[in-house]
Amino acid sequence: MLFRQAGIFHTDYATDRSLFPIPIDRWAIMLLLAFALAAPWLVSSLTLTSHLLPWLVWTSAALGLNLVLGWAGQFHFGYAAIMAIGAYTSVHAAKAGIPWEIAIILAGAMATAVGLLFSFAALRVKGLYLALSTLAMQFVMDWVISHVPAISGGVSATLQSPPMRLLGQVVASETGFYYVALAWCLLVTVFMLNLKRTALGRALVAVREKDFAAAVIGVQSFYYKAIAFATSSFIGGVTGAILIFTFYRAVTPEQFAVNVSIELLAMVIVGGLASIIGCYFGAAFILLLPGQMNELIAWLARQFGANLGAETLAHIPNMLYGALIVIILLIEPMGLGKLYANVRNYLMVWPFGYARK
Q1: DSSP string, 175-204
Q2: Is 1 a residue whose pLDDT tops 70?
């Protein structure tokens, strides 16, 4: 099979610690990257701007949240508020004439400062208490953003984003927006892939598994929890800025309400905790699948001549979608990423199943 390891010999530590030691993995990554780069010429404009672009942006956000939730083991119900801080900061900075590249860095820095405030709760409580604390902070940030005119302009105000200028050149095309989102998603993905192999990544996993046991071996749990929140917040802040400049083109408080935090949490859980490819699967599942299911149910109703009312057509896909989430988590509680890993591990030894015993 394609995943065979025969003929692969690790003769040094660099080879043994490579990200993709199996050739088929490298080829698959190269093919996916080639498709991503050629997507503006391979798919329709609607698919590019309404499916691929938001999928890449929200995958970046899911990766940032997974850093806290999957690697550090800390609940975070306020990630949408972190993204909102980055979005508003970048828009105000760009309106003030600051170059766009610096504006998104400022967005990440401001989100990091707010994320450190979130981390103070993580240093004192854990579990459901931490979930409740971050949820409360989400509501606090929602109120501040909505009721401080200097930030949002008011409760119902819409703040238009200025034109994106990348290296002094105005980016106004759909292809340009797509490539910006793709570059950021790839950057976050490479960072997360390498984080797994660093001392920081191993320390975060130690804190996640048992923080007081990690303290016994010299891992300062408070310190690494703060780093996890700060790093995750920086990713969330920049992602929020890119979401506004490439997709929404305007920012309102409703775009980053508490339901967005819950959807991001669902992306991570359905995709798989501490799973990078699971973030891609989870974002696609939560973001793209509902619309596809609506179209599928409507198409099946037309094919079989079923006379379903508009209200029924609106609720059946949601019911099936919810049932599908439950079924997936019952089959594999670790999410879609673990399902993929199970299939991959099976193919690595097929048909010699006894090799796994």
Answers
A1: HHHHHHHHHHHHHHHHHHHHHTTSHHHHHH
A2: no
